[in-house]
Structure formats: C-alpha cells, structure tokens
Amino acid sequence: MDRYLENKVAVVTGASRGIGRAIALELARCGASVVVNYNRNAEAAAEAVAAIEAEGGQSIAVQADVGDFEQAKRLIQTAVDGFGRIDILVNNAGTTRDQLLMLMKEGDWDDVLRINLKSVFNCCKAAARSMVRKRRGRIINISSVSGIAGQGGQTNYAASKAGIIGFTKSLAKELGPRNITVNAVAPGFIPTDLTADLPEELQQKAIESTPLKRMGRPEEIAYAVVFLASDKAAFITGETLTVDGGLVM
User: Fold this and answer.
1) Where are the alpha helices (DSSP H) in 97-199?
2) Beta-strand relationship, 88-91 and 240-243
C-alpha cells in the first residue's frame, strides 16, 4: 500500500457515515492520522475510528456541529492539541432539505446553508492559521454536481454547493502564496443516507443520465480526495474535480 500521507494529520467533517467515512478510511490507509468529526451519531463515529485502528491507523472521534463557529474552532484545536498539527482539512459535512421553492420553509433554507456552506467557512478559518504558520496545507471541500448543473427541488442544496465552488476558488487565491492548496470535489449520484429517500424512479433517471450507467461508490470520491491531499497534486489549486461518471460533462 502506498502510504504517501505518512505523518500527516487530517480532519474530516461529517465522517461517521457515507462519503465522509470512506474518505477518513482511505486517508488513514495512506498513512494519515485522522480526526473523525461527527455531530449526532457517536456510535457510527466510534465504528469509523475502530475500522481505522483495525487497519493499524491512528484516529480519534470529535463531536462538533461545524455549522457553529465556536464548535468548529474547538474541532480544529482538538486536532492540533492531539496530533500537534493539521495538514489536511476535508469539509464534507452536509445535509439536504429537498422541497420545491414555493413549499420550502425558511428554516429548511437556513439549515442547509448553515450546515453545508457556513461550516466550510468556519473550519477553513479555524484551520488556516495553523497551515499558514507551517506554510503548507491541503483543503478539500465536498461540493456536488447539483452546485454545477442545479436540480429541481434543491434550490437550497444547489446554492450551498455552488457557494462552496466559489469559496474554494477565492480561498485558493488567498492561500496559494502560503503553499496551501484549496480544491473541491463534486460527486455525482452516490448512494448514501442523503440519497436513500429518493424515489426509485429518480434514482433510475440519474443512472440513465450518467454515461457510465451506474451509481458511484463512496470510495471513488475518497480516491479523488486522497489524490488532492497528496504531494502528487501540489500544483493543482482552485479546481473542482467532478467525480460523476460523466453526468454533467
């Protein structure tokens, strides 16, 4: 196994399940010590940590609602205190409150923007100071093809994910002179808890619209994240890598 992230420390938000869990495990397999962030599901977070440790990796679980700045700051400080540094930040925490705009409640808009987009601001702001001092860092923000192409019934979700792309480009310009890269990954249709409630006909339509004619796997998003976190991607910044089977090309 290529352990090219040996001695690196990574924080992955929303890492107890789905794509976040796959990212945390893959980072650990490549040698990184991983902070598994979760908000509510302590049991799932403990299982993710146990899976990492079972393969010989180092990991801790840290509860924090990263949509709240003080809690996000505590998460990053816990990583620095526990492992001495933060090299990689993966902003993966997210939620959906799908509804047609005419029926969408204001709270559904606010919750999605807070959890999906404000959390990225919170964690990046908290982590940037440590990375700037070391003059090295990798930030990977998980967006979505919905933030590129839009999706009916997802004005809140698409807006949050499009905002992540703009945020990524702007922060890449700010932090580039400090040798810190900032990139985004935009998954296509990946079966997770967030997509489990989609009607079967919509799932089938998504598959039919994908040139590769299948859903993606959480591990396939993780592979892209690990690449962007590595020195192999040292000259890539401000980019959005779509991992979607060709859905929005």
Assistant:
1) 106-113, 119-134, 146-149, 155-175
2) unpaired
Q: What is the mean pLDDT of residues 232-249?
A: 97
Structure tokens at 21: 């869990």
CA-CA distance, 37 to 44, in Å (whole number)? 11
CA pair distance 175, 53, nearest whole angstrom: 33
The fraction of the chain above a pLDDT of 90, given in percent, is 91
More confident: 232 or 200: 232
Q: Which amino acid is at 200?
A: E
Q: How far is CA 157 from CA 39, 59, 145, 223, in A?
A: 19, 30, 11, 24
Q: Which domains does the chain have, with CATH numbers?
A: 9-242 (3.40.50.720)
Tell me, yes or no, if the pTM score tops 0.90.
yes
H/E element holding 241? strand 240-243
Q: Hey, which residues are catalytic here?
A: 157
